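Model the whole thing, not chain by chain.
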Amino acid sequence: MEDFQSLRAARATSVNADFSEANPAAASDEGQLHITAATSNPRLFTLPWSTPLSQWPDDLLVKLPRGISRHIVRFVQVGSDILAMKEISRSAAEHEYEALRQLRKLDIPCVEPVGVVTGRSSEKGEPLEAILITKHLRYSLPYRALFSRNLRSDTADRLVDALAVLLVRLHLIGFYWGDVSLSNVLFIRDADQFGAYLVDAETGSLYPRLTDGQRNYDLDLARTNIIGELMDLNSGNLLPSSVDEVEVGNRLVERYDMLWDTLTGTESFGTNEMWRIEKRVEKLNELGFDVDELDVKTVDGGRRISVRPMVVDAGYASRKLLKLTGLDVQENQARRLLNDLDGYRASTWRQDQDEEIVATDWMREVYEPTVRMIPPEYQTTVEPAQFFHDVLTHRWYMAEQIGHDVPMPVATNDYIKTVLPQTQLDQQSLAEINADADAGVIDDDSVADIPDDEFGSRGPREEDDDQDAAVWSTD
Amino acid sequence: MASVTYDHTTRIYPGNTTPSVSDLNLDIKDGEFMVLVGPSGCGKSTTLRMLAGLEEVNKGRILIGDKDVTTMQPKDRDIAMVFQNYALYPHMTVADNMGFALKIAGEDKATIRKKVEQAAEILDLTEFLDRKPRALSGGQRQRVAMGRAIVRQPKVFLMDEPLSNLDAKLRVQTRTQIATLQRQLGVTTLYVTHDQTEALTMGDRIAVLNLGVLQQVGAPTELYDRPANVFVAGFIGSPSMNLSVHPVSEGKAQIGSDSVSLPTDAVAKLTPEDNGEIILGFRPEHASLASAGDTDAFSLLVRNTEDLGSDGYIYGDIIADDSVADSAAATSATMSDQNKMTTVRVNPRELPAVGDTVKIHIDPSRMHLFSPATGERLN
């Protein structure tokens, strides 16, 4: 039954690109291009599927920072979308596509799967690997890109905090990842914190419930990988010297355990301490979780109460802000915006008015005029809510220096002039990041074309600008 | 180094009534390369994950050496899951890429260097130890990833479909490398695959699972030559074994108007539950074209032929009662995979024409006979 349903779901989103004009029913057969896509964007069908991804023409590619991967990954502009293409085996592509779809349905922050392309073959008729297509996550960056800019010394801590939240959320819904690392996550700035999005689900699967062994394995692997990734940054002189790699790895385990216990642990107290239920809910709200269902039982012959959250949902503040303003933003951004909204309400003496009416005015008078000031050249890289948060922070520092309040438009202008240019990734850093990303690609053509010994005698190469330089298949 | 013992091990998933792995008894010897093989959903991955500590064991125990690890956490078991998607770190040398986990574990520099050098020698990476990954070919990068598991020198390697994420060319190459490496290192290995060719080419011994139940354990040739039941007979071997059900009369299998002699001791083992029928199996290479007058042969209507130069294959339908044997074909369809047809390997110079009816003789010493009631081997 389950198989039947998944088959039906797959069919519902299948588009056959049958260029050979043979029987369309046989389109899924080997050797025939087959695109399963959740989009009907016709430009998808005109891409050069018969060319290995590493050789796609430059004019199709978008230069955005990529994370370390064993597979070839490229960003491609298709209409108004930027799509991430990953060349992997057919079974892995299909598995990952399905896993990402399930995670999206369960409201887990992860990249959006767009399609799977199978049955590719080169002009000479040689079979090519399948391609998994996902949508590029706007404003996101791989961890490596966050260390190539002048960032705060606690960046590593904030990244693992975000990863801990993601891992707990995955485990709560029964997803065993099997390959947790900073490389398999994209980060989006979220006020002073980061939000983590899963980008690689190749080894993951959903279970009705995870065993402690599965959770502990994920956690232990995450710790090892994070320490390794930070040691790598250290080797490249990209990590602030104050950062202890092992401590950051241990921090992940501590944060995870704390979150997991708060979200799933059973607490028991006397019947005269009922306020503790409320306190528990407050603590969960502070951590960004809503409690949908609480399991409250009397134990010990009715003398004690035991409480355990049954269903928790992440995004407490962001849902509240969405309801009030229609803004869909990260959790900590939402918290900051809600605080500013509260301040606006107090400063305009409107505490007695309906919150939703005040929120509409705040949007019109404060939020929108500010984010409209984002210069056009930054509009693709700067997220409005994050811009607003950063301007608020900047205004606070300005006010502290001058000794009195600074109007928003003044703070915004000053921020745009003095801070914003420093936040952008320069072309050289981007080229270095992408060369790093390709350095671990394990690609079949490279093995076929370059005998180990022959290659060994050639010695290492320098590659900076050419994003394919580290993928030897292009030789 | 250690042996691994599954002792009456059972795993039932929450909400299920039938076990995913049922009462498994399996000994993996110290240093042995054991392959678990079976179709999707047979319980092979669950079996591996129980050993890894990722699945709870509901009944029975699992031992590594003499130590009962049934309830131990994964990281305390001294096992290595090989080929989880190891990413290579671009700024670290090959040596650091291989040895960083030992550094995390607090081993001293000299020990790490020694272990890394040993692994590099086995992997043919010695001269690249001070290079960065970007200066390596794809195959070398793949070996560095293997090195990361090797340097830990665990008691057991676990590999769950490790080749499935690799592309086709690298898959065959890596298959050979893993097998060679395992023999050089002598580390006890449990390897899971759905691919019987992978199982036959890599394993010291193969354990075949179906529906959570262990069907047979043995060396590749044992499983190929003497499958214990119809399932193993149909699963192991490519092209797969021809299997069909026939009435038995006077010690002979009745195939239409033809009859094929059966060994008397096998026929004697048939019980009333078998309803006077027998499952007759033979591999495509253990039959030959016979003369029209041969009395110990059956008739085959040739549907297709293949000439591979070195070998020829005939695909056809067995003729029973002067017509194509529907029942036999339907039964064999569930057991072998050549589009329900009977396959015979012959000299390519002797291939008949499509549409011909030919006589086929089965080598009596290479015949596989099974009880229709139990599926168990009779000879």
